Amino acid sequence: MCQFQSLRPRGFSHLPMALLMLLSLLQLGFAFPVPETRSSSVLLDPISGQLKVIEGWDPAAAAWANLTDTIPETGWAFLELATNEKYNDSVQAYAAGLAEAAVSEQVNGSVCLRTLVLDPDWEGGLLRFHFPPTSASALTAVSLFPNWQVRLALLQLKGLEDSYNGQVAFPRGRFSIAPFGFLLFQLGGDLEDLEAALNKTQSQQVLGSGSCSALIKLLPGNQDLLISHVTWNAYQSMLRIVKKYTLPFRTSARSDSMIAGRVQTFSSYPGTIFSGDDFYILSSGLVTLETTIGNSNAARWKYIQPEGSVLEWLRNIVANRLARRGLEWANTFQRFSSGTYNNQWMIVDYNAFVPGKAGLTEGVLTVLEQIPGLVAMADRTEHLYKESYWASYNIPYFQNIFNASGSLELVKKYGDWFTYDKSPRAQIFRRNQTLVRNMDTMIRLMRYNNFLKDPLSHCQGCDPSQNGENAISARSDLNPANGTYPFGALRQRSHGGTDMKVTNSQMARDYGLIAASGPTWDEVPPFQWSTSPYSNLLHMGHPDLWKFPPIRVSWD
Predict the structure, then answer these.
(1) Cβ-contact 372, 301 below 8 angstroms
(2) Which residues form the signal peptide (predicted)?
(3) CATH code (residue 365)
(4) pLDDT tens digit string along 71-93?
(5) How many domains does the chain divide into?
């Protein structure tokens, strides 16, 4: 069972809009005035060979799930999902989806999932990307990529979908998933780039819009290594779940070896089977996280092709399950890159980190960046130990990625805001990371937004000159609606830092973390739907006032 401890305040989108609307409309039990706990077990009927879901815990079950809703009190719900290794992997995966859906459904049984109306041309393009024709190159990608883990991920999603539809039937052989049901929830990041690649003029992408801040901080004397991530997203996305999956799958259909990442803790959302932020603590000893770098070079969209590629959300899941080391993760993830959901990934290997050791051990930090048609990766451990930190803030690090992504052209047009070393967050991280001495000061930095007083939050060409976007945890809603801004990310928006997660070498062993939900309120007013300029936006199931302190999350 999940346990959480409230921590005293210390004074301190990345999804396309169509998907945000769906996330707001999917109600999975988050409107209760008091904490609600639900549990379920999935049993295999020995006569029919089919699975059935029951309430409560049964030791003979193929899967178990427990959900504790404390969103009114903490801003988070907590899901624990586990499967029984005595069953074959396919049964485990499908049962996992059934179990999660059972505990996540609203108490009165009414789950609201609206149908998204898509442009027919855009719809056809999306179908081609996720269900490519069986050409030679497409078949090669399927056969060479770890397709057993892909199948298990899709089976889990199938279980989630079937439970929602009330049509539980374990699929034997080939199966299908509705392209615009729960599958769409997994595609949030990929859709951002598919939308641009398919030349849709109504793209919701905002120039310069940040999708997350991240910091990996080596404490003085190398006593500990802290890892933190702040999601930047539209405020409509703030129905949040911390999930712990225990999925003892085999590495392949013909293997008895267990996957390295069979236990995972991650920040997530209703209806999704991976993080999407992304932030994971894995049983392999790895912690994986990313910030989005995007692509501003229209000439590179031609490299996004449906054949011979696997979308990012699946490569993400597969790499997290199979990899034991950072370089192995990067090599797995880069294979058959779709060029969609283009991020800077950081893979931290706690197996290679020795607290208090003066010298470095290769492999502590691996960094990977992806844009359409190009992937760069390198061991950045030496950089981490030399500088004592690695910061990530939506700007490419590798020079070839920076140039090819169109970032150089943005610098020429808009100035230092788009540079790797002189952007506002780059400078704030460089200045404030020296103040990090422990977990409390790390949290203070990751929730930092003092834009009205901080000279590094100055916005060239803006009126007013100080901007809520220019901080580690953005508050774009606090920018005046009638201001003057050189590009879209700097204007007033229902967008900003929507959480904070942090772990260290000790907590990660037990999949623990400290988490804060909602926009920062340390040096700025807390966000409140009813008094904000966005009270008319859909936000069913949300608390009105988002003023939650960080909590310590641990698991029995």
Answers:
(1) yes
(2) 1-31
(3) 3.60.60.30
(4) 999 999 999 999 999 999 999 99
(5) 1
Q: Is residue 299 part of a domain?
A: yes
CB contact at 8 A, 402 and 420:
yes
pLDDT digits (tens, 9 = 90+) for 434-483: 999 999 999 999 999 999 999 999 999 999 999 999 999 999 999 999 99
Beta strand 365-371 with 343-349 is antiparallel
Q: Which of 104, 112, 113 is nearest to 160 (CA)?
A: 104
For the chain, give the number of residues: 556
Residue 78 forms beta bridges with which residues?
68, 242
In three-state secondary structure terms, 243 is: strand
Please state, in angstroms and rounded to a whole number, the distance separating the CA atoms of residues 14 and 291: 10
At 68, list the tokens.
């504790």
Residue 6 is predicted with a pLDDT of 57
| Domain presence at residue 96 | yes
Structural domain boundaries enclosing 30: 2-113+186-555
| pLDDT value of residue 7 | 59
130 found inside a domain? no
Residue 138: predicted pLDDT: 39
Q: What is the chain's Cα-based Rg?
A: 22
Helices (H) then strands (E): counts for the chain: 16, 22
Is residue 397 within 8 Å of 369, Cβ to Cβ? yes
What letter represents residue 332's amino acid? Answer: T
Looking at residues 254-283, what average pLDDT do you find?
A: 97
> Which positions ≥6 away from 444 have C-beta within 8 Å?
10, 11, 12, 435, 522
User: In this structure, is the dihedral angle defined by the CA atoms of residues 26, 32, 36 and 38, taken in order, positive or negative?
Assistant: negative
Six token digits for residue 162: 């079937």
Q: Which residue type, as a one-letter code, is found at position 479?
A: N
Are 366 and 380 contacting, i.e. CB atoms less than 8 angstroms apart?
Answer: yes
DSSP H or E segment with residue 552: strand 551-555
pLDDT digits (tens, 9 = 90+) for 182-220: 999 999 899 889 888 887 545 567 887 778 999 999 999
Q: What is the 3-state secondary structure (H, E, C) of 475-523?
A: EHHHCCCCCECCCHHHCCCCEEECEEEEECHHHHHCCCEEEEECCCCCC
Is residue 263 in some structural domain? Answer: yes
